[in-house]
Amino acid sequence: MSITVGTYLVELLAANDIDCVFGIPGVHTLELYRGLAAVKLRHVLVRHEQAAGFAADGYARISGRAAAAFVISGPGFTNILTAVGQAYSDSVPLLVIASMPVRPSLGKHWGVLHEMKSQQTVASGIFGVARTAASAEDVRDHLRACLASLRVGRPRPAYLGIPLDLLAKSTDLVATRFPQAPSGVDSAAAPIDAAIRLLDGARRPLIVAGGGARGARLELRALVEKLDALLVTTAAGKGLLPEQHGANLGASLPYAPTQALAASADVIVAVGTELSETDVYSGLRLPLTGRLIRIDIDATKLCDHYAAEVPIWGDARSSLAAIGRGVSQRVGWRTALGGAASTREAIRDSFGAMARAQWGALRAIRSALPADGVVFSDMTQIAYLGNYAYATDAPGCWMHPSGYGTLGFALPAAIGAKIAAPARPVLALAGDYGLQFTINELITAVEQGVTLPIVVWNNAALGQIRDDMLAARIPPIGVVGRNPDFIALAQAYGAAASRVHEPEALESAIRGALKYAGPTLIEIRETDFLTASTLGSST
Ligand SMILES: Cc1ncc(C[n+]2csc(CCOP(=O)(O)OP(=O)(O)O)c2C)c(N)n1
Ligand SMILES: [Mg+2]
């Protein structure tokens, strides 16, 4: 029996483990919805396509499974691209299915509805894999390639464009499950041996672990302990060791005391990390002088501006396990230094009044959330501190839009996470300005009935940019805007809302929000927390 290509596509998605799609239907995607009710594929309506991308991103970050987004040609497609840029830079898998105008019109500039000069060219510039289908067989073959790219090697977002006349055509193809591609890359023995030799001769070994090491927690810990090494993570690698572990410098790469240690390490193992500007936040390159072993699933990372003396192309887990088996147990640098504690103390001593006020709020959030709680943070000053100072004992508990640095990420990504993992406690943390990029998704959270505390750090400003202008002696312009009444606005959307004035009240408001079957906006004013922190420290 023949079906439409649109129905064939949704059947293919369902047959290949895509179980959720975020989207906004339009006249160009009608045919994607024809077969939707008959398959096991949940559709979540969002209020802007950018949020469909962020929600699919949050869904994948928390579950490890990719979700899809359906967008219309032209504006729906361009609206989602910012979220795609974020997912690309943070190695998050998601699948965008976009319609395109009818095939006879493509490239001819007839001015048809939702026409773009070249949707495929734009997609090629931002997705990991970007394909346009011209036939039902193309839909099958391109989708297979897209799904394989999400699941093998370094995950990146994938795109499939389908002209709307093709979506409506009928096909006799039958949706089946694609053969599964292998999931890992086995590292070659020779560089593993070279790494073992280098580490056995090391006097001051340091391991730097990023998001790519998240699946290798035990192997990493075993290696750190065997080498008596120190470990520093990026924000994406937070929690790879428990916060209090003696070797754990935390996600402290941007801080001077850690950078001084890194500069004095004689052998560095960088695993699953780009060591990018947004990991380091003090120039383009860490001042490393030691010999460098890099482990990465992305071969291009092994020879970038931190070219490795020992490049290991492989996944973090098997590579670290093989190195861990080969190195000799020793007592060395970490024990001699007395562990990570003095470095962490030096970092803490460098906190000024504002950082201490923010830290008070971060600790309140941490104590209100159970051990498996997850924070989705936005681009706000409290989150920049939280990248280091929010305590995590397991990976995947602090999700920040690190690389692309996109305002508006936290709320829709947290909604996507709750849809993927309803039992996990999730919290969104955003600044007063960043929240307004996607605050309309409050209604999505209300509609979906997701339990979600949303903590707003309100400093009544584009605080970081104001501070940067002041530091650069630029008269501050455009950094203070009028804010809405966040409480009234949240309530208008049907969310619960309250304002709290100090950390204890924040903690109990979050505990309450975690019991409420819907979103709760909790506003905190920076000035209140600054006062509370100053009073607290003087007693
Ligand atoms: C989409 C996007 N546009 C602009 C920026 C630049 N930007 C970074 S932080 C920031 C200010 C954010 O203000 P707020 O959310 O209130 O956080 P605060 O710095 O005050 O804590 C801006 C405009 C960005 N990161 N992303
Ligand atoms: Mg602000």
Task: Provide a brief overview of the structure.
The chain is built from 23 helices and 19 strands. The protein is an alpha/beta fold and 539 residues long. The relative contact order is 0.10.
List the helices and strands and how they pair.
Blueprint: E1 3-4, H1 5-15, E2 20-23, H2 30-33, E3 42-45, H3 49-63, E4 68-71, H4 75-89, E5 95-100, H5 119-124, E6 129-132, H6 136-151, E7 158-163, H7 164-168, E8 170-171, H8 189-200, E9 205-209, H9 217-227, E10 230-233, H10 256-264, E11 267-271, H11 277-280, E12 291-296, E13 310-313, H12 316-326, H13 333-337, H14 341-349, H15 353-368, E14 374-377, H16 381-389, E15 398-399, H17 410-420, E16 426-431, H18 432-438, H19 442-448, E17 452-458, H20 463-471, H21 486-493, E18 496-500, H22 503-513, E19 519-525, H23 526-538
Parallel strand pairs: 2-3, 2-4, 4-5, 5-7, 6-7, 9-10, 9-11, 11-12, 12-13, 14-15, 14-16, 16-17, 17-19, 18-19
Antiparallel strand pairs: 1-8
Question: What is the C-alpha radius of gyration, as a whole number of Å?
Answer: 24 Å
Structural class: alpha/beta
Uncertain residue ranges: none
Report mean pLDDT, rounded to a whole number.
96
Number of helices: 23
Q: If strands are numbered along the chain, what order do they take across the biggest sheet?
A: 3-2-4-5-7-6
> What shape does the CA trace take?
globular
Which ligands accompany this protein? thiamine diphosphate, magnesium ion
What fraction of residues sit in β-strands?
15-25%
In helices, the fraction of residues equals 40-55%
Give the tally of β-strands. Answer: 19
Q: What distance lies between the first and last C-alpha atoms, to the nearest angstrom? A: 78 Å
Biggest pleated sheet = 6 strands, parallel
